[in-house]
Specification:
Length: 146
């Protein structure tokens, strides 16, 4: 039985054949290509795996987007004001709350600025995110059954 291929190693079978290591950290992308012609297919994969592990050990750990990064102007992590176009082509404003489930899935809820008003939509989005984080914390405290 072989180990699963690391997610940061991808196969290229176009004009240039080989394995590439692709790692993104804090907005910067690190890539290195290992050609089949230079190493051989299996040796290129092994070299990519070794390089990937070495690079991951040197780089800082991946930040969780929902918990640590805020690229919004609302001032609340995981809550942002967004504009979306409906199927009819009309633009609508929303406040959107985002958080993670215990399985790592992203949950998002949006609240219409047109329906609730600017202040209420923001308040509802903030409360929805806080409730989602409370549920996440409660789920992580529960003992798991094997």
């Amino acid at each position: 039985m072989t180990a699963p291929r690391p997610s940061n190693i991808v196969r290229h079978d176009g004009k240039a054949r080989g394995w590439a290591v692709v790692i993104k950290r804090r907005g910067r992308i690190y890539t290195k290509f290992f050609a089949d012609g230079q190493y051989g297919k299996d040796a290129a994969f092994q070299a990519a795996c070794i390089h990937g592990r070495t690079l991951l050990a040197r780089l800082p750990a991946r930040a969780k987007y929902i918990e640590h990064c805020a690229r919004n102007t609302s001032g609340v992590v995981g809550v942002g004001r967004t504009r979306e176009r409906s199927k009819t082509g009309i633009w609508h404003l929303y406040y959107k709350a985002r958080w993670l489930t215990p399985e790592g899935r992203v949950i998002q809820k949006k609240f219409s600025v047109e329906k609730y008003g600017e202040t209420e939509a923001f308040k509802f989005a903030t409360e929805a995110r806080q409730e989602g984080l409370r549920q996440l914390k409660a789920a992580s405290r529960r003992p798991t059954q094997d």
